[in-house]
Design brief:
alpha+beta, 11 helices, 21 strands, about 30% helix
Length: about 625
């Protein structure tokens, strides 16, 4: 039975290998400090945090998240450690809440590695605090206990670390917050909870799905400025999985085996479920291997520390036993991980062919039966994600529509993969331009006609070859802008749109918008930045990145960050606000659960395929048939 603690209460721990689970309704950072018998944090190396997530016997998340799982092995802690304080803090500089009083009470649970709950604690009565010591694991007379602390600090991480006696608390707090901000910039955003809809009217046996809430264009063509309707019922349950043919076998996977109102919504939720399952399964395997390595080192160290057993047959036998136990632990972990991987591979094999165009790769046969959609899909596929444990297992990277943040197609060298290291700078720029065109074409193809408008700045004209499919099929709202004058004209037009829509929303007068304001979603593709940009243009670009997404204006930067280094730290917020993708495989993206580094592969058109041109030709034909808007 789980012990529910209140502030100040303690409880014995039945085992020393634990998992600490933290749940909040907002992304927060979680860490842990190692303290001596007096409760003092001796040095910066005694704290596990996103910039340094691993210590002997302790591992924390690498980034801010709404859910955390911290791994603790109390037997592996240094002998001088008598306390482990689990700390929570609200990240700074990422636009979230600044005090715990405006978020739901954090919930902390201490469990065994198998998920068996031991104690839980809900941290209540927080107000202006931005950091809190949640619980404390402490050693008393050779046994470990847990205490519910709930001590908050208005001064945030710096005040908390200073209270534990750490010299240089301010510098370390800044380092941690910078690491969190960088993690937020590279993290794939978690999906919102499944949508629900009002109950059907009397006599109607079929529930009517509620449209997904949007901040931009709706299927009818205008911008939806209304707050989503209150949710009252749960979505339909998923179809049952096919039971195994023999006892002990895994169930046969089925496409759409998730909750949702439609098959597309069920597939979307299923893909995200596969993503999370893969991330957590890989984390469990890696943690088990790390534990086996640590245990083997400790056992061998004990043999070597005793002069009487350091050499001779007894020492050789002890080493062999340590290696055998290590191999057994790793084999057990590998067997469990392989079972999970086999199930995920089987699920991927049935899900991938069933995906609609918005979720599918360009080589999926569904594109050959493409028809211009009549409503906006839930999400868009940007590429694939994989881990080194199973390179052939690729998870679709789906982002919700309308976009909530812009994209950055990095045309600079990353050094994160062998493929990137083998490509020269000119080829990277060419690949980046073609990647941006493929993503833009996909966006145009999955929206109803007229519900998205593309704008291009190609100040130097270097991307003309890559832009040809968009230009030739009339997918752009205006010809690509070139030179400083063209850059200024596009930015002025889109900045005016953002200003007018924001004022209309604030004054509740959206019907008074001028007729020349395009109500469709807007995507501005910028090539060769900062060529053609002066200080005013850079300021307008940052404004669009900050304010545009809330009113349906997003950026797609195709740029090498080093080219803009002359602007110094002025552009740091711009790069952090954009989701970075690469034209070649690169392991720079993180999942929102455990922070693995996932290898991203862009959604590019197969070599020699004409599918992109064929799809854009159908969009152009529909535009001519239906006019500028449906």
């Amino acid at each position: 039975m789980t012990a529910e603690l209140v502030r100040g209460q303690n409880h014995p721990l039945p085992e020393t290998r634990l998992e600490i689970r933290v749940t909040v309704n907002q992304p927060i950072l979680a860490g842990a400090t190692l303290n001596d018998e007096q409760g003092r944090l001796r040095e910066a190396g005694w704290i596990a945090h996103p910039a340094s997530p691993t210590l002997p016997g302790l591992e924390v998340s690498k980034q801010a998240a709404a859910q955390h799982r911290l791994a603790v092995d109390l037997d592996a802690l240094p002998d001088v450690v008598h306390r482990v304080n689990v700390l929570l803090a609200l990240p700074t500089g990422v636009g979230g809440p600044t005090r715990f009083g405006v978020v739901a009470a954090p919930f902390v649970a201490v469990t065994g590695l198998d998920g068996t709950p031991h104690v839980s604690y809900t941290i209540t009565d927080l107000s202006s605090e931005s950091a809190v010591v949640a619980i404390e694991l402490y050693r008393r007379q050779g046994a470990w206990k847990v205490r519910a602390v709930g001590q908050g600090y208005q001064g945030g991480l710096e005040a908390m670390l200073r209270d534990q006696g750490l010299p240089g608390a301010g510098e370390l707090a800044t380092e941690i917050n910078d690491a969190v901000a960088q993690g937020v910039a590279r993290s794939v955003a978690t999906p919102p909870p499944p949508r629900t809809a009002p109950s059907p009217s009397a006599g109607d046996s079929t529930p009517t799905p509620e449209p997904a809430p949007t901040s931009g264009a709706t299927a009818g063509g205008g911008i939806n400025y209304q707050h989503p309707r209150r949710q009252t019922t749960a979505p339909p349950t998923p179809p049952p999985t096919v039971p195994p043919s023999q006892p002990g076998q895994q169930p046969t996977p089925v496409a759409g085996d998730a909750s949702g109102w439609s098959m597309n919504e069920r597939l979307y939720n299923q893909v995200w479920g596969m993503f999370e399952d893969y991330a957590r399964s890989a984390a469990a395997f890696r943690s088990a291997v790390d534990f086996a390595d640590s245990r083997q080192e400790q056992e061998i160290d004990r043999v070597l520390s005793d002069p009487s057993t350091r050499v001779g047959p007894a020492a050789d036998a002890a080493r062999e036993q340590a290696r055998a136990r290590h191999g057994q632990l790793v084999d057990q972990a590998r067997a469990a991980f392989d079972r999970d991987l086999a199930q995920l591979v089987a699920e991927s094999e049935v899900v991938e062919p069933a995906l609609p165009p918005a979720f599918a790769r360009w080589d999926n046969p569904c594109w050959h039966a493409y028809q211009v959609p009549m409503e906006t899909p839930m999400a868009l596929r940007l590429g694939d994600l994989s881990l080194p444990e199973k390179a052939g297992l690729r998870i679709p990277m789906l982002v919700r529509l309308p976009l909530s943040r812009g994209l950055w197609v990095d045309s600079g060298p990353s050094g994160g993969s062998v493929e990137a290291a083998l490509v020269d700078s000119d080829e990277l720029r060419r690949l980046a331009a073609h990647t941006a065109t493929a993503l833009a074409a996909r966006l145009v193809a999955v929206y109803p006609v007229g519900d998205v408008s593309l704008h291009v700045i190609d100040a130097a004209g270097s991307a003309s070859a890559a832009l040809a499919p968009l230009v030739d099929n009339g997918a752009l709202a205006h010809p690509p802008a070139s030179g400083p004058a063209g850059v200024s004209e596009v930015l002025e037009r889109l900045t005016r749109r953002v200003d007018l829509v924001q004022m209309a929303v604030r004054s509740r007068a959206t019907e008074a918008l001028p007729p020349d304001v395009d109500p469709a979603e807007q995507l501005l593709i910028v090539h060769d930045f900062p060529h053609g940009f002066d200080d005013r243009a850079v300021t307008q670009l940052r404004y669009l990145a900050d304010e545009g997404p809330s009113v349906g204006v997003n950026l797609m930067m195709v740029a090498n960050r080093e080219d803009a280094s002359g602007f110094g730290p002025l552009l740091d917020p711009l790069w952090r606000s954009l989701l970075r993708v690469t034209p070649v495989p690169d392991d720079h993206l993180a999942d929102p659960w455990v922070g693995h580094a996932w290898t991203y592969e862009p959604a590019v058109v197969p070599s020699g395929s004409q599918v992109l041109q064929q799809v854009l030709a159908q969009v152009a034909s529909a535009r001519r048939s239906y006019g500028p808007r449906l």
